[in-house]
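Re: the multi-chain job from yesterday

Posting the exact lines I submitted so nobody has to dig through the queue logs.
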Amino acid sequence: MRIAIAATGAGRVTVGDPDGGSVHDLERHDLPALVARLEAEHAPRWIWRDTREWAPQLLAAGVRVARCHDLRLCGAILASSTVVAEAREGMPGRPAWLPPGPAEAAADASAPAAASVAAHAPHAALFELDEPVDAGSREGARHPSIDDLAAEHDRQLALADAAERSGALRLLLAAESAGALIAAELRVAGLPWDRAEHERVLEEALGPRPAAGRKPHRMEELSALVRDALEAPTLNLDSHADLLRALRAAGIGVDSTARWQLREHDHPAIAPLLAYKKLARLLSANGWAWLDEWVVGGRLRADYVAGGTATGRWATAGGGALQLPKAVRGAVSADDGWSLVVADASQLEPRVLAALARDPAMAAAGRGRDMYGAIVDDGVVATRDEAKVALLGAMYGATTGDSGRLVPRLARAYPRAMALVDDAARAGEAGRRVSTLLGRSSPLPSASWHDLQARANAVDATAVDERRARAAARDWGRFTRNFVVQGTAAEWALCWMAGLRARLAAIPVPPSVTPATASGPAFERMPHVVYFLHDELIVHAPDALVDAVASAVRESAAEAGTMLFGEAPVEFPLDLVVTRSYASVV
DNA sequence: TGGGCCCGCGCC
DNA sequence: AAAGGGCGCGGGCCCA
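And the result, structure tokens for all chains:
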């Protein structure tokens, strides 16, 4: 059964079964109670334009739904998937009231990014009762009725079912929609954050918090050392241009101020400069200002953007949760009576490549716990480190350095795996799309990319034109090479997390559980996902339930492998730790 | 003053 | 040691 939810303007909402069931017209304020009742009675798939329009309000009221279909995210996948290209020909396109997906909007410089549309200041209310998404102001946009939503849902399912591997596409749409729910839940629950521990880390590294507009003590000391060593008494270390000039004037032959270049020179200014840059990074990215802005009430509430990148990996639109430096992870700590179940899919991308390519030798290497070790045992390379570098090079398209040198050895040992990524690279170089296992397709290169190629093919093309075009083609080929692996790995991770979400909701909670009061009414007694980073997640779980949660995490990983690859002989082992603090994992 | 670009660096 | 793919973010800086 499906039930659609549509805004009708002026704070009212229509909720109903478009296939002939009852339809309710109500104040938006009354929505959570109705959804809770219908969810309990029918366990429907909820059909809505955009999960971000509804989930925050429901979660704030303590109401969760098991399944939804996010028309915006699924519409974006179907609009670009080559798997349904033929079926699209005979069908109407996306309706005007359906905004583009986040990755599409980001790629289109003329339109504001969807992420920024949804973005809000961290202290703002978690939802706005009237218009949380400004789709109403888009040209040609209007409020879709529940019949509009149902018709678009039908169109999307018909497109998916027209694909040769319709099951894969259906799975992708379900996983993407589950991801949208999880992204909303991650924000509402928040990542448990120990402010005092974070401040301790900052003070140890930087010294006491400085007055507004002042630099921390340790940074001032290091700046003085650098200025002395460079004999540049007024140098501003934060200005790349000024710093580069001062370095060169002191005889240090770098052409950028990047750390890897600086490290190659022996000069008394280098050590304090590198130390300064490390501290400056900590201060600006995760210092006191970040803490004040993003950690409220003992929770980091980052703004995840499901489907925010071309490959299907998520993005964030604030809070920087995808780049929490290891130095501050000790501040992630469970509430009293609760634990963190931290799980990481080890060597996910090479395993995905082995399974995707059905390369028997590489799959055999991916059957054990340590794929890199198995590649050494196969005699392909001499050390684990070489195996890792060679695999990264194969997936990223390295051509130089150690990595580029090792790739041919990998190609001899695992020809099918190498052929898969090489084919993807060739397609990209020719300007064609490539697709993941479940059917998400890469974007087309930009108009300027095509211009470059056209110029190189013109009769009066110069050597420079040809060189530029070749470089651009190879760049895009590296992108498509990586796309198939990164994107399929993202699909594995989505399926893993979606399965886990369902399993966590089914774990019975004993009455003895201490509430995690800062996690909101939907999660205060339930184990719940609080962090997700590409191939790693954290569940905040009552102590009494950590064993059940760990089992759920493992079962979901195994199930994700089977859903994507059937009985392919590749395993997806997890590194799983139960802990109070994320620091103990790093 | 604000937008957009580059740089450098944090994460995977 | 970096390299090669995907990101976000803050600071400097240029320009209107």
